[in-house]
Amino acid sequence: MNLIEEFNAYRAKMNDKILGEDNKVIKRFFNLDTNTYASGELDVKTKEMIGLACSMVLRCDDCIKYHLGKSYDAGLKKEEIFEVFSIALVIGGSIVIPHLRRAVEYWEELTNQQLNYF
Which residue of 30, 43, 65, 107 has the smallest Cβ count within 10 Å? Predict the structure, then answer.
């Protein structure tokens, strides 16, 4: 199982367990999170770039992977992703660098996975 498959499988498994507990507050929060990134006055690409930058500054590797995947699905190009990386680095400082390394690795995995489908 590769990095992307492993992340997505674990996330789906644990989300099913969490939501299976039928806690109203947790379900509402998950729904709020999902709806926040839906197209509105800002398009999905823009929202994912914001989510990615914030996740990097907050140093949440799972969130970074999630937003990289969604950014990839939304059609962001490598150059756009690296601009987001640069914003996060300027805002967050050098503490973001280890997360930047893992983000680049995950982005490369996403783009290589697409190449492998053909």
Answer: 43
